[in-house]
Design a protein that fits this description.
mainly alpha; 9 helices; elongated
Length: 218
């Protein structure tokens, strides 16, 4: 009970600061995933077209994923310095694999009969991509974005070690305090809730975009 009371007191006294860190934390995560999507979705489409490239590209993304997040941040920090930009680039690199693999898988799982029908109707390759492949693969791609965002929110927490701010700052303040359990919870609870809410929202969007559910809705 004492910890809960201290938690409420901390929030009441520091809510503007807490909200600032929540927004900062989410923006770092969102920007990292957004930039990764801009690169990984087109790249996933390309390697689905030229499958000989897929092994090399996906293996490279896998190697990046195996590097510990703090070690990757430390290496990038040597080139980019301290601050949120280094965290965004780290999250960009970490988000490539799930988005890339899901885009690749989503494009490959489109029924070949539908592609042949599009060709028979005189569609160009771009029209088939835009009107057939992407609409059918979009829910799979969204699943990759969903995974990347949840991972990004988690990884962004350790960005505090390179001066990026975010909810990790609050958690670290708690570890340095004499009786900092409430302060640790003040940072950990919003971080956990952010990950859960992001997962639920992205899962709902993924459900809505599923071709099977579109047919049911009609």
């Amino acid at each position: 009970m004492d910890t809960l009371r201290e938690l409420f007191v901390y929030y009441s006294e520091n809510m503007p600061y807490v909200w600032e860190q929540i927004v900062r934390h989410f923006l770092m995560s969102a920007y990292g995933v957004l930039f990764a999507a801009i690169v990984a979705i087109p790249l996933g489409i390309i390697i689905a077209r030229y499958r000989k490239l897929s092994g090399f590209v996906i293996s490279l993304a896998n190697i990046i994923q195996t590097i510990p997040a703090l070690a990757l941040m430390a290496v990038l920090m040597l080139a980019m310095g301290l601050g949120p930009n280094t965290v965004v680039v780290t999250l960009f690199l970490y988000s490539l694999l799930p988005i890339l693999k899901n885009t690749y898988t989503g494009i490959l799982t489109v029924d070949q009969a539908l592609l042949e029908s599009g060709k028979a109707m005189g569609m160009t390759k771009f029209q088939i991509l835009r009107m057939v492949e992407l609409p059918l693969a979009v829910s799979v791609i969204m699943a990759g974005l969903r995974t990347a965002l949840v991972i990004g929110i988690s990884v962004a927490t350790i960005g505090t070690f390179i001066g990026s701010g975010g909810l990790g700052d609050i958690i670290i303040r708690g570890t340095d305090a004499t009786n900092g359990t409430a302060i640790i919870l003040a940072g950990a609870i919003p971080a956990a809730l952010m990950a859960v809410i992001a997962d639920l929202v992205m899962g709902k969007i993924e459900f809505w975009l599923s071709p099977a559910n579109e047919k049911v809705a009609r």
